């Protein structure tokens, strides 16, 4: 938060939901409506997509079981399209929520991995689309490297 001036979150997956376990917000007038312990759908948030990307396997049956409710015009509601997006996120090392849960909200998320390389949590930078996108490449680089540092802390 100090580096970006935007809201940062850490979350884990609980069934079909993202569960927020940590949040730090800046002193800006535009606030993200999340609280510690609150839940958001896993398929249309940056954190959720990053957590799902870490759970891909050959069958992906668990992905096909997800309800893909539509929240905005950008929400992915097709399982095949979601799997393609998750594969892309896993490959590039970060996920994007491009106004998929809430219009105007943009989120970049990166995985926190345990000592065997399993995604156990994710961190994100979230804020108004106009502010995040104007610094997107810098934020991605910073977020991915920060996630790697956190992950390395847990390698035994």
TrEMBL record:
SUPFAM superfamilies: GAF domain-like. It comes from the Bacteria. This is IclR family transcriptional regulator C-terminal domain-containing protein. Signal peptide: none annotated. It comes from Niallia oryzisoli. Residues 1-156 form the IclR-ED domain. Pfam families: IclR_C.
């Amino acid at each position: 938060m100090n580096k970006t001036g935007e809201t940062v979150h850490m979350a884990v997956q609980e069934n079909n939901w993202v569960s927020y376990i940590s949040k730090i917000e800046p002193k800006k007038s535009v606030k993200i409506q999340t609280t510690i312990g609150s839940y958001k759908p896993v398929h249309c948030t940056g954190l959720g997509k990053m957590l799902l990307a870490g759970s891909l396997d050959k069958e992906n049956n668990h992905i096909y079981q997800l309800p893909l409710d539509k929240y905005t015009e950008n929400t992915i509601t097709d399982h095949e399209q979601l799997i393609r997006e998750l594969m892309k996120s896993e490959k590039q090392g970060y996920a994007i929520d491009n106004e998929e849960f809430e219009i105007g909200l943009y989120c970049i998320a990166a995985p926190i991995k345990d000592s065997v390389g399993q995604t156990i949590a994710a961190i994100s930078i979230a804020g108004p689309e106009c502010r995040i996108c104007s610094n997107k490449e810098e934020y991605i680089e910073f977020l991915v490297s920060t996630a790697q540092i956190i992950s390395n802390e847990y390698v035994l």
